[in-house]
Amino acid sequence: MKWFILVALFGLGLAQHNPHIKKGRTAIVHLFEWRWADIAAECERYLGPNGFGGVQISPPNEHIMLDNPWRPWWMRYQPISYNLCSRSGSEDELRDMITRCNNVGVNIYVDAVINHMCGASGGEGTHSSCGSWFDAGKKDFPSVPFSNCDFNDNKCRTGSGNIENYGDANQVRDCRLVSLLDLALEKDYVRGKVTDFLNVLIDMGVAGFRVDACKHMWPGDLAAVYGGLHNLNTKWWSAGSRPFIFQEVIDLGGESITTKEYVNLGRVTEFKYGAKLGTVFRKWNGEKLCYTRNWGEGWGFMSDGNAVVFVDNHDNQRGHGAGGAAIVTFWDPRPHKMAVAYMLAHPYGVTRVMSSFRWNRHIVNGKDQNDWMGPPSHSDGSTKSVPINPDQTCGDGWVCEHRWRQITNMVKFRNVVDGQPHSNWWDNQSNQVAFGRGNRGFIVFNNDDWDLDETLNTGMPGGTYCDVISGQKEGGRCTGKQIQVGGDGRAHFKISSRDEDPFVAIHAESKL
Ligand code: AAO
User: Fold this and answer.
1) Name one Pfam family in it (predicted).
2) Which residue CA neighbors atom 27 of ligand 1 most closely?
3) How far apart are CA 88 and CA 382, in angstroms?
4) Which label site among 361, 401, 431, 448 has the fewest CB atoms less than 10 Å from its CB?
5) In the chain, which segments carry CATH 2.60.40.1180?
6) Is the shortest distance between the CB of 322 and ligand 1 below 6 Å?
7) Which of 264, 402, 397, 268 is nearest to 336 (CA)?
8) Nearest residue CA, atom 66 of ligand 1?
9) Ligand 1 centroid to 269 CA: how many Å?
10) Which fold has domain 1-115+186-269+357-398?
11) Kind and range of the H or E element at 94?
12) What pLDDT was estimated at residue 15?
């Protein structure tokens, strides 16, 4: 009997590690704060045709609304109910988006905020995205309904009721994260409400969840919630497919809670990845690109099959969460493009690309005074839609890193080399490195202050290839640099340290 339960649990765990990305696709993009209508259009006009595997969307359920023009992005992380109307749109728009994205092979992953409701000082009234009444002071959320007894305060042992010490696992799970009302997920009733909410989304056709703030929930409670989830909708997935689960747990070491406690339940966000990669590309702390020869588990990251990786996320690009100033974001486009390309070329983990909006960054003593600023919006506070410029970039403050040629082309590179081993490593013992993916792709970086001029073994079949960083193959022609690979697989690379993008990538489908 015990054996049977173990096998069942293990099987369930493994199944929830599979992102169910459609064949030939590999990467996820986080369209942070985008409206559902814009995501639907983006799936059809860009993500589907360019081989993106999925979109992480902002939380779709009802959230607190703070006074315009004070409309911080983080309102989305303060739930009021599980009604599906949010700053990104209505339930109908959500359903339409899921259907249209699925129909072009792009999965939707929902950011699920299930650890808490709004902040304790969230007030009383109908200042919520669907207009539901609530009273944060009385812990009364009738639209779920949750009441006073559905929260953890009786278990929390700190004076303030908030988490005061990340070294104490009990308070991290039983007390309030930055004063957010902490749900009692040990109760069957609370688990049931959360599970029902997630199942509605699964039935609508989402492929899985980014589960917010998992460090703050007991693994056993999460196992109970995940165990109650439906299989994916058979309109788009084969029968018996489990929803993909990736859990936000920040673990840079040195705390009582580690990612290890969560990896059997689903994948986990590997925050060391972006923090280290940023440090390497910034050449801080004596780091050099040549040290990344054993990138992945060799750097103390969790095992490949458990990790979701990213260069930056919506928190650490503005100083929230973890990673600090090392994180490279769109504000530093040159190292950002290199770091994202490195991630997409490297086989480790399920990769997520960040797609941001611009805000009035104002850093004083290392802290961004405007880290709260919400997405581009109209004077009534509603989120602006994303206009597409003639050159395919986005307007109105939407950065759309995922549309930058270098990044889109590396998403395609990852698809082309999928399943191939990390191979043909070369480095100059400094910040010039190269590696391939079997005989399907090869990438060369120059992050030194001098030029790279080398003949390297690419492992690729002979021929002329188009570099997908300086340009791309268009109608049989190459708009960028051309690379000649000889019959012996060797090719000459010249990369000036002053190039706009000091790296070169070729793959099987960029052959001319
Ligand atoms: C807002 C206001 C608050 C107010 C609250 C309630 O800002 O002042 O009290 O409303 O009214 C987001 C925003 C919050 C916002 C919240 C609700 O970021 O500012 O609060 O919405 O609107 C921890 C959690 C992690 C969390 C992260 C931000 O563990 O789960 O904080 N991320 C998720 C979401 C995030 C969201 C929430 C959770 C809440 O992605 O967008 O918050 O739904 C250590 C710990 C980490 C901890 C950080 C930050 O990290 O390890 O677990 O993350 O501290 O507190 C080095 C260390 C590193 C350390 C870091 C920072 O890097 O190596 O370990 O320093 O000290």
Assistant:
1) Alpha-amylase_C
2) 321
3) 9
4) 361
5) 422-510
6) yes
7) 402
8) 322
9) 14
10) TIM Barrel (3.20.20)
11) helix 91-103
12) 66
Decide if 266 contacts 247 (C-beta within 8 A). yes
Is 212 catalytic? The answer is: yes
Low-confidence residues of the chain, pLDDT below 70? 1-15
Residue 272 Cβ < 6 Å to ligand 1? no
Q: pLDDT value at position 67?
A: 84
Span from the CA of 491 to the centroid of ligand 1 (angstroms): 47
Can you read off the two tokens belonging to residue 509? 């489908």
For the stretch 94-138, pLDDT in tens is 999 999 999 999 999 999 999 999 999 999 999 999 999 999 999
CATH for the 422-510 domain, from 1.10.530.10, 3.40.50.10800, 2.60.40.1180, 3.40.1080.10: 2.60.40.1180
The size of the chain, in residues, is 512
* 390-399 pLDDT tens trace: 999 999 999 9
| Whole-number Å distance between alpha carbons of 199 and 204 | 8
Domain ranges in the chain with CATH number 3.20.20.80? 1-115+186-269+357-398
123 touches ligand 1 (CB under 6 Å): no
- Cβ-based neighbour number of residue 369 at 10 Å: 12
State the pTM of this model: 0.97
